[in-house]
Amino acid sequence: MPEAPSLVRQVQEQWGRIINITSFVGQAGNFGQANFAASKGGIIAFTKTVALEMAKHNITVNAIAPGFTETEMLAQVPENIREQIIARVPMGRFGKPEEIARAVVFLAAEGDYITGQQINVNGGVYM
């Protein structure tokens, strides 16, 4: 894969952060979601590959893998199915968008020596 020349030129011996958003489904799979799981698994593999390629430029590349999160999409799921999903989550609730955002902020601000990783923010639904 060719390097991202504009990002590399911008950092010029400084640093950079690339933070991808994937899903725990890219690691664990989920019934009826082969296409979604494959695309999210691809983001994880892409993250690791780009991390290897960009490390020499002091650019870290990581992914956040949320679990079931309170979004408009999840709000469309029937209540009885939502209850079944929550029963699978050890913390007993859905994540909040701001909890996902805090993980992104952490990587952006403090992730100097973290690269090629996916951080699970999922209430324990996949460990």
Automatic annotation (TrEMBL):
The cross-references to Pfam families, in alphabetical order and at most eight, read: adh_short_C2 (PF13561)
Q: Which domain of life is it from?
A: Bacteria
- Annotated SUPFAM superfamilies: NAD(P)-binding Rossmann-fold domains
What InterPro entries does this protein's entry cite?
NAD(P)-bd_dom_sf, SDR, SDR_fam
Q: Which family does it belong to?
A: Belongs to the short-chain dehydrogenases/reductases (SDR) family.
PANTHER family assigned to the protein according to its UniProt record, in alphabetical order: 3-OXOACYL-(ACYL-CARRIER-PROTEIN) REDUCTASE, 3-OXOACYL-[ACYL-CARRIER-PROTEIN] REDUCTASE FABG
According to UniProt, the name of this protein is: Enoyl-(Acyl carrier protein) reductase
